[in-house]
Amino acid sequence: MTDFNRTHDLIHAYYAAFNRGDREAMLTLLTDDVVHDLNQGPRETGKPAFAVFMQRMDAHYRETLADIAVMVNTDGAHAGAEYVVHGEYVSTDEGLPEATGQRYVLPGGAFFDVVEVDGESRIARVTNYYNLEDWIRQVMRQ
Questions:
Q1: 87-127: per-residue pLDDT in tens?
Q2: I want to staple 121 with a disulfide (CB 3.0 to 4.6 A). Which of 6, 35, 95, 115 is the partner?
Q3: CATH number of the domain residue 96 falls in
Q4: How far is CA 25 from the centre of its chain?
């Protein structure tokens, strides 16, 4: 069974890997059948789908997260995080406005389910949220 401290450290490690651009490290923190709920989009399942999503994101966006606050329930099975995304829209993502290197600052958040796999805490679900309309307003102003 996972616990509060292990989950807290796991979520911080996940975001530290994100900020370093270390996608392989991020993947090691996930279960093989991780559920990924995309912001205002579909649910995807499995590490391969998560890796493809991150490749697409890296092709279109350069992002770092700041002011990360992690909240964990008492048994460590669920966590949430709030943060501020500092990003640059570097190439046009399908169905979105044209990219011209616009910069944006956007609050975001995520929810996590955490389980134990072979004695290690792993992320079994990631549900991301940010305000897409706010993001579009920011990139359209530039």
A1: 999 999 999 999 999 999 999 999 999 999 999 999 999 99
A2: 6
A3: 3.10.450.50
A4: 13
Q: CB 125: neighbour CB atoms within 10 A? A: 20
| Bridge partners, 107 (sequence order) | 84
- Contacts with 114 (C-beta within 8 Å, 6 or more apart), sequence order: 2, 7, 10, 76, 77, 78, 79, 121, 122, 123, 124
Is this structure's pTM higher than 0.85? Answer: yes
Q: How many domains does the chain have?
A: 1
Written as one letter, the residue type at 81 is A
Q: Which amino acid is at 40?
A: Q
In the 3-class helix/strand/coil scheme, how is the chain assigned residue by residue? CCCHHHHHHHHHHHHHHHHHCCHHHHHHCEEEEEEEECCCCCEEECHHHHHHHHHHHHHHEEEEEEEEEEEECCCCCEEEEEEEEEEEECCCCCCCCCCCCEEEEEEEEEEEEEEEECCEEEEEEEEEEECHHHHHHHHHHC
Residue with tokens 């955490």: 114
**Nearest 5 degrees, angle CA 127-CA 46-CA 15?**
45
